[in-house]
Amino acid sequence: MEQHGDVFATLHKWLDGLHRHASWPLTDRYLQTYLIPSALTVLALTFTLALWSLLPKRLKVRGAPVKAAGPNPGEARRNKRYLAFLETPWDGAETLASLFEQSAKKNAGNKCLGHRRVIKREEFFDEKSKRNFEKLTLGEYQFQTYQQVFERVERVSSGLIALGHKPRENLGIFAETQAGWIVTLQAATRQSIPVVTVYASLGDEALVHALGETEVKTVVADLKLMGKLVKVADKLTTVKRVIYFDDINPDMELPKMPSSWHIVSMKELEALGEKQPAKPTLPKPSDLAVIMYTSGSTGMPKGVMIPHAAIVSASAGVLASVPQADASASYLAYLPLAHVLELAAEHAILTLGASIGYGSPLTLSDQSPKLQKGTRGDAPTLRPTIIAAVPAIMDRIRDTVNAKIKQAGFLVSMLYQIAYKSRLAQLESGAEGFGILKALWDLLVFRRVKDILGGRLQLIVSGGAPLSSDTQRFINIAMGCPIAQGYGLTETCAIGTIAEADDRSVGRVGPPVASCHVKLVDWPEGNYRTTDRPFPRGEICIGGPVVTRGYYKNEKKTKEDFSEDEDGVRWFHTGDVGQWHPDGVLEIIDRKKDIVKLQMGEYVSLGKVEAALSSSPYVDNLMVYADSNHSFCVALVVASKALKDWAGGKDLSGSEVEEEVKKSLQKVAKEAKLERFEIPTKVKVLEEPWTPENGLVTQAMKLKRDPIRKQFKEALDKMYSK
């Protein structure tokens, strides 16, 4: 059976299916009867918007200055609405254990965690790839209430103690995102058991490193991942017990396991806990809750030590930044829970008392590759109001929809552009009072786009990497909902800044979240200083209760990246460079590690250039490379579907295709106002996508520069030797 890896890498499969199969009922008759007359009416309103946009607007201050202590206080900001750090969502909720128990009591009858029952599984053999593929028929979502989930948490918690796992011994979770994952975490917190998180797609070496360094005694794993554990069993010298989830793939056979391991299923563990209830050993706020291994864009992943207080404060801060969310919200979970963005998002939802429906990128839409024909996708079935997504996912949705519109013909394409530009003018003018425009275009044009993700979305939470302005506007317009674009890191529990819903600007990541302060400190080597005007600039530092303890068994790196001021505030030095806008909103402009000095003295920010060039329709992914011994930079470009369609079977490495790509990059570079020396002079087009499985990007789709440089050294050298 096909083994699927990381969710970020597999999402392009259902997007390709969407591109091939989506239907757009924009016939000529439909155009003549409804759309064209409506378009004329809307154009008149658009002209009114243009006049409205000329009126002066009052600046809304979102982040306020705050005095920071320490030898380098920098330019610090806090959330305008909060004078002090927001540490808990309410009194008494100071740990993950107390937070969930109290939320479960307050929201006992509310829907909590849901999954889809597998009605039928069928296997197919693909002659071309010589591999077996599974197709699923799925039912509706089935939910347990908060009370039912809490009772399950208590059974699992007692079962762990009955099985022999002791409080404060590390427990590892090696599984894909599912209800059992969050139940296991909550169960562990009730016995003061720290949880070690590892990605389901982690390689053997990194898996052994994470479980070995933390001396994990018990591993909770997916049944389909048990084979990977067995493969490295001789190197997992501290593991004594393995618990496997048996509700997702109950038909799969358990592989032959080492005799030294005690093997039980989750159902057996729950039954054991019900027979032998154990008194909880509740944690303190300062106790370790999670050791989260980062995605490892440079070298072996590091374990970030996250205390209970940090995650609780992060949840409180997120909810303060998105006050429109309440207990009626429905959240679709499909990103890895081993990623801090998903972990923070799900705990915020549990704090609200809202519902979480679990899905998969392979079953997300109606055209997803793992679904039997006629089976609805997770998003159309659940119809969520909130999802979290990384920019790479939203970029692909945008490219897929735009390509489909172009294929639909001239009239459809023209009408779509009219609708899009009309909504764009409305957004940028701030004329929210003209809601009839949005309603008309949503009904006539954008409804089918919104239906891709269920049609009820009210908020998309974005993080993990910079989001391009083109994609942000596409989501605002075509999906019809705001994006809470945030900035944070694993070391700060995904918390730093979050854009507010009424901020219609692009390219910025919002004011500080209520549970932290953000400051900029001088970085003279990069010529960034807090005295710069009109925008103070410098390295971004995040301080407050969301900042974690540091790196597990890595005191040297901890001292390099973390500090504590005389007021006792803990700070993390991110290595990113930002600037403050007059309204107290942060913009990410650079990264210290990604700056290269060219032969003639110019500085090139690789990340900044890559973010700008990624808006080219020909780019699925790219890496800009600069050699300090030369006066120009070059680029490796992974071909998008649009480029492959344009090439029409031509050799992608040929000069004709490369010239076409260069023209496209030069166009978007000009629009982004890049300097001439920042624009790649030469490009190498690649056909094979970069995925976590081939080791060229992280699980969050961030570039692994060193592996890419090594793998394509010959191509890079050749571009500089020509």
UniProtKB/TrEMBL annotation:
<dbReference type="GO" id="GO:0016020">
    <property type="term" value="C:membrane"/>
</dbReference>
<feature type="domain" description="AMP-dependent synthetase/ligase">
    <location>
        <begin position="129"/>
        <end position="552"/>
    </location>
</feature>
<dbReference type="Pfam" id="PF00501">
    <property type="entry name" value="AMP-binding"/>
</dbReference>
<dbReference type="InterPro" id="IPR042099">
    <property type="entry name" value="ANL_N_sf"/>
</dbReference>
<dbReference type="GO" id="GO:0005524">
    <property type="term" value="F:ATP binding"/>
</dbReference>
<comment type="similarity">
    <text>Belongs to the ATP-dependent AMP-binding enzyme family.</text>
</comment>
<keyword id="KW-0067">ATP-binding</keyword>
<dbReference type="InterPro" id="IPR020845">
    <property type="entry name" value="AMP-binding_CS"/>
</dbReference>
<keyword id="KW-0547">Nucleotide-binding</keyword>
<dbReference type="InterPro" id="IPR000873">
    <property type="entry name" value="AMP-dep_synth/lig_dom"/>
</dbReference>
<protein>
    <submittedName>
        <fullName>Plastid long-Chain Acyl-CoA Synthetase</fullName>
    </submittedName>
</protein>
<keyword id="KW-0812">Transmembrane</keyword>
<keyword id="KW-0436">Ligase</keyword>
<dbReference type="InterPro" id="IPR045851">
    <property type="entry name" value="AMP-bd_C_sf"/>
</dbReference>
<keyword id="KW-1133">Transmembrane helix</keyword>
<feature type="transmembrane region" description="Helical">
    <location>
        <begin position="34"/>
        <end position="55"/>
    </location>
</feature>
<dbReference type="GO" id="GO:0004467">
    <property type="term" value="F:long-chain fatty acid-CoA ligase activity"/>
</dbReference>
<keyword id="KW-0472">Membrane</keyword>
<dbReference type="GO" id="GO:0005783">
    <property type="term" value="C:endoplasmic reticulum"/>
</dbReference>
